[in-house]
Amino acid sequence: MEIIRNLTRRKLRNILTISGIVIGVLALVTMGAMAEKFNALLGGGAKYFGSNVQVADNSSGALGGFGGGGLLTLDKVSQLESVDGVAAAFPEVSLGAKPGSTNGVSFGVPDFIASSNPGENSYAAVKLSFAHGRDVNTSGTGEVVLGADFATEFKKQVGDTIALPIRAKDAPVEFVNHPFTVVGILDKTQTAPDAGAYVSLQDAQMLLKESLPASIRGSIDTSKLASGITVYGKPGMNLDTLADRINAQVSGVKATRPSELVASFNAGGAIFTAITTGAALLALVVGGLSVINTMLMAVTERVREIGLKKAVGAHVRHILREYLLESVVIGSIGGTIGLLLGWGLTSLINAATASSNLSLFLLSWRLVIIAIVFSVGLGAVAGIIPALRASRMDPVRALRAA
Predict the structure, then answer these.
(1) d(Cα 327, Cα 84) in Å, to the nearest integer?
(2) Of 4, 208, 267, 380, whose CB neighbour count within 10 A is largest?
(3) 126: which DSSP letter?
(4) pLDDT digits (tens, 9 = 90+) for 124-146
């Protein structure tokens, strides 16, 4: 009670001090939530691509140059599976869900359409599970499974129909899309699959054909093509070694070492970690200086009170504890308010941008704990100097000075 009474003595000054901590913690929470979201995407990518070998076309022919990326013939799948160390290979067909549109990104991951390979889930490091419904029938057509963000963006549920690819407002007259029945919606992963629409390989090949330039569309049989192949190694197999082995034994393909992809993801994560660290340092400077200033002023104003307490028997530890607790309370109040404001702000922004499939923030429990510990620790550290000054006062001099 005494601590609360002391805080209410100088309401304006303490409010300003708490506001400084609120600003610092708010910056930490918002920047940290943005970094958590981005790092979740990068972490998911690193986990997925670190568990397999991505194989693409490496030829210089017409197909190899299409769209800045190559197309592989499906016979490459059997060739890859014959390489020593390969456990399984899955053809992949992937294309943009919104051709010609720049909208609808989930923090850097554009909406996409991809072929579904149910058997791949048993090999993949990032396991996909269903919030509702089931997987597509691999031998059928006209079915789609939507990622969590994709379903939210277009307000689709199991049983609804969605036309793919999505028609842009300025789409040309010859633009073609097809109706698909939503048979499943995936659980949210906070990674790339949230922005995906998964169809059977046959449907993906059909959509791929229609995405080709009209001048070559009729001369290409996409039912025998894939945009890439994902290869999984046998247990204990070094995937970098497997990628080198594929490049040496299978012609016309380029297998990328998983370590190279993982390194690129980790480099991106380091940037956002630096941003979060910068926000934490800002909070430390702003909040710490304000707490130190307030507590020093409190010590100066309460010299007589400190002298009286020591004169009647208060020990150094009693005075030290009192002022440390006071500064910790200030830090805790500011941290709690900053955390709540950060949670509210990030939630409002995420809700406002959900319809555009733009998710910027992820407020994780780790970030919540960091914010709480940071604010309490900030108050304790900032209160050490004033508390030591108060506890070491000579009671006689304190009473005379008063």
Answers:
(1) 65
(2) 208
(3) S
(4) 998 999 999 999 998 889 999 99
